[in-house]
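Predict the structure of Tyrosine-protein phosphatase.
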Amino acid sequence: MLIPSATNFRRLPHVRPGTLFRSDHLGALDADDARQIQGLGIRRVLDFRGAEERTAAACVLPGVQVHSLAIEPTIVQVLKDLLDAGHELTEAEVVAHMQDTYRGFVRRSSHRFREFFGHLLASSEPTVFHCTAGKDRTGFAAALVLLALDVPMDEVMADYLLTNERLKPAFLENTRLPPQVARVLTRVQPEFIEASFEAVQQDFGGMDRYLREALGLEAAQRARLRELYLDG
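Done. Here is the predicted structure for Tyrosine-protein phosphatase.
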């Protein structure tokens, strides 16, 4: 499915058709695209954007309940502050800052992903989850869902990297960042999400324990997730 005004909108793989979708933000949908998404029966939107992001581009999809799971973005402001101070950022430095962002998902925002799974466990009504570009906060959330469903890591990574084929970098149009910075911020790289997995390993000893202790997914909850969402 192609949604021209939300190019990163797509079904989550290995998930029962019609239940769970991931996307970039839904604040710029045109009428045709909104009708196309409505046709999927979407009833619930789980929004990882921060306060200013939500205000700047409020969800225009009618007839849905939007739940805010706010994770405030920091990366663009951090990089702009460095540039304003006269620092000439290299691509490698930007990648390192992105890795810090992903470690922060584990170390500072796990409570939001715990809330996210609480919504998913409450019902399997057709749901879309998103942030602004649908690549970082959303990409980590999608990976957690697939890992909780025991999807192999290579397929988790394939879904994560699919963003590079789908996303148009319009979300950075007004930031006036140097090309070497924008090149990193408009794509995903394995090194980004691998940094989050390394933080999980360092802090929890592995993904199963992270899912259990940080996100509240005991064996019964993971079995419920498989019942609600796993395709086949």
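The chain has a mean pLDDT of 94.
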